[in-house]
Amino acid sequence: MRKLKNEELQRMDPEAFKVSKKMPWVIVLDNIRSMHNVGATFRTADAFRVEKIILTGITAQPPHREIQKSALGATESVTWEYLSEPMLALQKLRSEGYQIICVEQTDQSLALDTFQPDSDKKYGFFFGNEVFGVTEEVVAHADDCLEIPQFGTKHSLNISVSVGVVIWDMFQKIGRPLL
To answer: Domain of 97: which CATH number?
Structure first.
């Protein structure tokens, strides 16, 4: 066994990525403080061909050196936009036919492993601030809330880890036809 060299991985370049078929999923970062989390989210979005990222509130925007440290160029391939408020993102996505899904612990959360996505639907996934979570108003207007089951002493995961878990789960359930 040996490790593959980058040129053996047959990855597309950013231009080919931009015109490739994408998963009809939008990741919304709701007031994220850490630029490393923002960059890591771009890498996850690139890895699974997510349609777009919407950055809201205090979430930093590319180009920024601290975002690039973890994005490693994914800000050049993944489409993104900035909206001042997370509710603007919710309203925009809803008007475009997206199901609004918060990744948050609520009194009506569905366990991620029990969630059965519909391959014919478009999804907007809201991930919240590292301390305060998804904005309360967004939660109140969401179609569903998903919770990642956890069994340790902590009550949350790092935002970039949560993005990776949710997007991987979605890709496993309905994303393979993209390939």
So the answer is: 3.40.1280.10
| Host domain of residue 87 | 20-147+157-174
User: Both tokens of residue 112?
Assistant: 């991620």
Residue 178 has pLDDT above 70, yes or no: no
Separation between Cα atoms, residue 154 and residue 7, nearest integer Å: 40
The number of residues making up the chain comes to 179
For residues 98 and 26, the answer to whether their CB atoms sit within 8 Å is yes
pLDDT band at 11 (very low <50, low <70, confident <90, very high): confident
How many Å separate Cα 8 from the centre of its chain? Answer: 28
Which of 24, 28, 72 is CA-nearest to residue 49? 24
Interatomic CA distance for residues 114 and 131, integer angstroms = 26
Contact 160, 37 (CB under 8 A): yes
Q: Write down the pTM of the prediction.
A: 0.96
- Cα distance between residue 168 and residue 107, in whole Å: 24
Q: Nearest to residue 54, comparing CAs of 104, 20, 16, 91?
A: 91
pLDDT at 177: 61
